Amino acid sequence: MESLNDALLNKYVTYLKIEKSLSLNTVEAYLRDLQKLMDYVAFEKLDVLHVTYEDLEQFLAQLWDIGADARSVARIISGIRSFFGFLLMDEYIQEDPAELLESPKIGVRLPEVLSVDEIDHILETIDVSAREGQRNRAMLEVLYSCGLRVSELVSLRISDIYPDEEFIRVEGKGSKQRLVPISRKALHEIRNYMEYRGELVVQKGSEDILFLNRRGAKMTRVMVFYIVKKQAELAGIRKVISPHTFRHSFATHLLEGGANLRAIQEMLGHEKITTTEIYTHINREFLRKEILEHHPRNMNWGK
Q1: Is the CA virtual torsion 99, 105, 108, 109 positive or negative?
Q2: At 99, is the pLDDT very low, low, confident or very high (cuts 50, 70, 90)?
Q3: pLDDT at 131 over 70
Q4: How would you list the strands of the sheet with 161-162, edge to edge?
Q5: Virtual CA dihedral for 256, 265, 33, 171, nearest 10 degrees?
Q6: Can you tell me the distance from the alpha carbon of 111 to that of 55, in angstroms, rounded to the nearest whole number?
Q7: Residue predicted with more confidence, 106 or 124
Q8: What is the pLDDT at residue 133?
């Protein structure tokens, strides 16, 4: 039986061929790019007719995260706009979630970077007396201090934290694990959060998950996106940011501080910098030394 997504795609193909008079090669190119969004929608268990602007922003953040260049992202955004424009025209949806998507400037590969002061200001705007305030502060601190992908953040387990060694174990893409140094500032915020977490009724299956929603279940990536956007607005940050911005800022600040590029590669969980460097290995103590010496959180906190 044909799924709703397949049915919509088939109607969209007919629209491109007949009403837009596009060539077969052009149509196939549109579909290849659109399939990336459909895969994301399926993975997140979203309804394509109820996809929001925030969902699309999160999808685009993942494209940056895997190293897509500005030209590819711009092309994919163009295809997304065309698809949702078709859904709106044929009254499958009432509002176009892609209407406000901004295409990157060609030649600019990476998203916005936050300064250390901007990150501090965002964290300072979080009201820790509010119900989820301490959780949000700990969450964003870990996001920045460890350079995690948002998917890695929401999957982080209590048993993955080694406070004495000041490391966390992260499960990245392809279920590959890596050890990432964690700052004392982040550990401090986690300890404060654990007092609040202890008051929650934790749902079955989430007992070891570090960051929980108010119902005691694992948080979603979209929830983290909302929190980042909300706090950035409260802090008066006008840059277009997402959870990935914290990860990119982490790497940028380390690089600007003089950290070894391959150490950053290892901490981010990237497979390679270039083909010739794919077999470069960095030992654990060197990783720890690099982040302790060069990350702003470790240089400035607790002095």
Answers
A1: positive
A2: confident
A3: yes
A4: 161-162, 167-171, 177-181
A5: -120
A6: 17
A7: 124
A8: 94
Which helix (H) or strand (E) covers residue 262, if one does?
helix 261-268
Is 274 exposed, middle or buried (CB count within 10 Å of its CB: 0-12, 13-18, 19+)? exposed
Residues forming the active site: 149, 173, 244, 247, 270, 279
Q: Which two tokens stand for residue 279?
A: 């077999």
pLDDT for residue 105: 67
- Which residues, other chains included, contact 240 with Cβ-Cβ below 8 Å and sequence gap of 6+? 102, 111, 112
Q: Where are the beta strands (DSSP E) in the chain?
A: 161-162, 167-171, 177-181
Residues composing the chain = 303
87: pLDDT strictly greater than 80: yes
Q: Are 302 and 184 in contact (CB under 8 A)?
A: yes
Helices 116-124 and 243-256 cross at an angle (nearest 10°) of 140
pLDDT tens-digit readout, 163-178: 999 999 998 777 788 8
Q: Give, in order, the Cα–Cα distances in Å from 81 to each of 14, 76, 108, 164, 168.
A: 17, 9, 21, 49, 39
Mean pLDDT, to the nearest integer, of 63-70? Answer: 74
Q: Partners of 157 in the beta sheet?
A: 209
Using H for helix, E for strand and C for coil, what is the string for 55-122?
A: HHHHHHHHHHHCCCCHHHHHHHHHHHHHHHHHHHHCCCCCCCCCCCCCCCCCCCCCCCCCCHHHHHHH
Q: What pLDDT shows up at residue 2?
A: 53
Whole-number Å distance between alpha carbons of 301 and 286: 21
